[in-house]
Structure formats: structure tokens, C-alpha cells
Design a protein that fits this description.
By secondary structure, the chain is an alpha+beta fold. The protein contains two helices and four strands, in the order E-E-E-H-E-H.
Length: about 110
């Protein structure tokens, strides 16, 4: 099927809700199925992922291209200084790990960077 004609599923993962929106493609894309599931924000990402796992198997969300947007609540950002002295990916990764551990402490040791 041509990409222009495939439906597109937008998924937003927030700490307190999961939002699913299927856009029907074609010459005039229009909203299709839409769902908002509210979760207890105290449980963090586990509640939202459990809700997504329960909904993902349903037919109205199948056979579409997918875009997932993560809330800033789940992501950590940091600006890193540029260095021409770094010679490879391993040195860059070491710098990233060092900078994150300086800001976030021991919690950053298990993070995927």
C-alpha cells in the first residue's frame, strides 16, 4: 500500500493518561478512532504502558504507521559541552555518562543514554 494511503496512529504517553488517535489517510486525512485513558499519575509509566498493552491488540489500532510521543515527564535532557578532543563514540558516551551522573547522581547509572 502506498504510504499516502496508509492510516497513521498517534500515541501520546503522559504520566496521567494515554492518548490514541488514528488519522485516516488519503487526499483529505481526517480523524478516525480516538481514545483517552486516564491513569493514576502516582504509578508513573507502568500504568500508561499497561493501558497501551491492553489497547494495542484491538483491531481499531492495527495496520497503521505509528508515531509515539513521550511526555517530558519521562525524558531527561542535558546540554553537553562540545569537545574537539573526543576521538570516538566511546569517549563521547563516557562524557555523556559523566555529565548525567554529575546532575542526576546514582539514579543515572542504569539509564539508557
Amino acid at each position: 500500500m502506498l504510504p499516502l494511503w496508509r492510516d497513521h496512529l498517534h500515541i501520546a504517553l503522559c504520566p496521567d493518561r494515554l492518548v490514541l488517535l488514528r488519522m485516516q489517510r488519503g487526499l483529505r486525512p481526517r480523524p478516525g478512532a480516538k481514545l483517552v485513558i486516564y491513569c493514576d499519575g502516582a504509578h508513573g509509566w507502568e500504568c500508561v504502558l499497561a493501558a497501551l498493552a491492553g489497547e494495542a491488540a484491538k483491531p481499531e489500532w492495527q495496520n497503521a504507521d505509528v508515531t509515539i510521543v513521550l511526555s517530558n515527564h519521562f525524558v531527561r535532557y542535558q546540554l553537553l559541552p562540545w569537545s574537539d578532543q573526543l576521538s570516538g563514540d566511546e569517549e563521547r558516551a563516557a562524557l555523556v555518562r559523566h555529565c548525567y551522573s554529575e546532575v542526576y547522581g546514582a539514579a543515572a547509572t542504569d539509564w539508557e543514554l
